[in-house]
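Aim 2, interim progress. The first record below pairs a target sequence with its structure tokens.
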Amino acid sequence: MAEFLASIFGTEKDRVNCPFYFKTGACTHGERCSRQHNRPTYSQTVLLNHMYRSPVNLSLAPEMQRLGGMSEETLQKHFDEFFEDIYCEMVDKYGPIEELNICENLGDHLVGM
């Protein structure tokens, strides 16, 4: 029995543990998911949700489209300033950073449109 449970852990056949969360560390159902999300007790990775708000999301709004949106240079400058600010702040408070990844979701369903 233990071998069978071990063989289906993290797969669609596993009715207890969420396979999507197991593979990606996130689940589209969030806290409403009917399956367990096994979070690690220790990790060297720190996740800061909703930290970077891309101006592209704002430029998708009708009022920004009427103004012509934002240039690529303006978007890059905004990102560079954010990256430098957050990197310096984290290094000052927590020490050396091995890697810093910033993600943005631009799909309409992911940005509340």
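The second target in this work package is listed in the same format:
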Amino acid sequence: MVQKSFELSSLQFSLFKRQNKTDSVDNSRTKTVKAAGLNHGDRLFMFPKTQNLFQNANSSSQTETKSKVPSVVVEDEIDIELSKLEGSIPKSKDKLNCQHQGNSQCVHCIPYDPFDEEYLKEQKIKFMSFHSYIRKLSGGL
């Protein structure tokens, strides 16, 4: 099944339950997944027995390999809409420290970034949203 999934031309690989190459999973056409001691969600580690395991069978070049990764990533509509928004959290005008007109901002009334540590602690937010995390990584852009 692994050979078919990865479109491998040979069985020149070994499967293990652990990354340190212990608990080998035997290659068998008759053994079921349960009989192999595997459960849903178990991770398997595949190690090649030869260097050119993923080499294309039709090509003699070692650099040309088959890839199942799509070349174009399609974003969800909600992700596109959220990326258009500013994403900042508005802050009300501080009556004591703000001494400006309504159409300007000072240090005390600039909106919070969605990843602002003080705001997250103040609101007792344990985990920030995925989009806030992405904005934090990209420097707020």
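Confidence is low (pLDDT under 50) at residues 59-65. This observation will shape the mutagenesis plan for the next reporting period.
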